[in-house]
Amino acid sequence: MPTDNYNLYTHFQCQFLAHADKELLCTGDGQSHSYSDIEKKSAQVANFLSGLGTSPGDRVTVQVEKSPWSLCVYLACLRAGFVFHPLNMAYTESELQYFLDNAEPSLIICDPKNEETIKNIAGLSLAQKVFTLDGTGGGNLSEYVNTAADTFTDVKRGKNDLAALLYSSGTTGIPKGIMLTHKNLLRNTEALVEAWGFSSNDRLLHALPIFHVHGLFVAIGCVLLSGASMRWLNSYNAEEVLRFLPESTVMMGVPTYYTRLLATNKIGTEITRNVRVFISGSAPLLEETFLEFEKKTGHRILERYGMTETNMNTSNPLDGMRKPGTVGPPLPGIAVRITDDEGTVVPGGTIGNLQVKGPNVFIGYWKMPDKTTDDFTADGFFNTGDKGRIDDDGYVSIVGRAKDIVITGGLNVYPKEVELFIDDLPDVIESAVIGLPENDLGEGVVAIAVPKNMDKISEESIIITCKQHLANFKIPKRVIFVDELPRNTMGKVQKNKLRNTYQNLLK
Known about the structure:
alpha/beta; Rossmann fold; Luciferase, domain 3; 3 domains; eight-stranded mixed β-sheet; four-stranded parallel β-sheet; 16 helices
């Protein structure tokens, strides 16, 4: 493999050639697709999109249901050098407006039911380059693509050429475009394949969404770089997962997946007999979940730590001690350190600010050079915004989030975004949004609001209004009214106090 070509797909290519007739994926309803099938279909998509005048470096916005076709769209973008820009199907019209205005895509692929909305947002200049694709492969994209050539010469990419643009809201409530290069994804995938022992003998149970790092880059990347196969489920359903676990060797999931499996009372040693490793991430795994799963199945869940800006940073070992409550030591080639607020590295075991450095770390925020500068140290470490500590064995523990992210069902909710919306309501003075323990999702979003006049506002009215403008996973499960928010001497809202006061609200 040429070392000067970082195109991620080109590095997958040897597995497509070696395993042409092998099943790459099989859907929940039994539709089988070989490596050759996916290669040819992704080539057709790449040819069609390139024929529209789309050039390497152009953004391609994709908001579609998970399907084998959506996988082909992602691979086509890699092959042609386009920047893949995936969006959660749950985003509302106002949220989509920002993403499209900011990303400035050359074309958009969306679900047929959203076509009119997307075209209205995109405007006249882009409306002719809006194509549709549904979860079954229907829509006009497949009609256009089926006549295209099924071979494609992959575009050479350099180490700093973008592979993907993913958005994550920040402390200001303004979504940030995270620029991930082909090198970022390639080097991280290589490290994970080695760390987790992936081979062509593996069969991954893939029930994750593919609009974020976990399901898109981590899961798919490990499969394609190792020549493995996967059971491809369009969404997570505990009963369906139980059905396919006996044929699987690896499962990746968020903590909610494991708590839901345990809740069925059907998970045990027989169902998991062929699984060699269960992997969890995207949110902290409770120690009680870790221990109960081990008791029921004999498997110690392998917890790892990553984020959109960095992909995976640390991982408990495949072979060796997996410590509950930790995310393991750094992956090879990645440096992790803990500092105080002045940037000084603190002694082992001390809680502080978690910083990372390595080939996995993104190159910056899209159109936000000042924010990029602020989040990197002079010696090249990225400030994750997480609070952590490193024990004597080098294992990292995440003990808090400086940026106050709420992680619900594996999805990130940034309180400031929701607060800004609620604060703008006519009968609200101010609000504070927090995450509270919730048995199923891990955390649930809760808003604490100070009303102007209780006679003109209600919990129900705020929730209904939020549903009209915010993605469903960001909607508060409860709204609590108070006379004032607790503050420290500097005037900062004490969210820890709010979390302590209402800790049992969602249980």
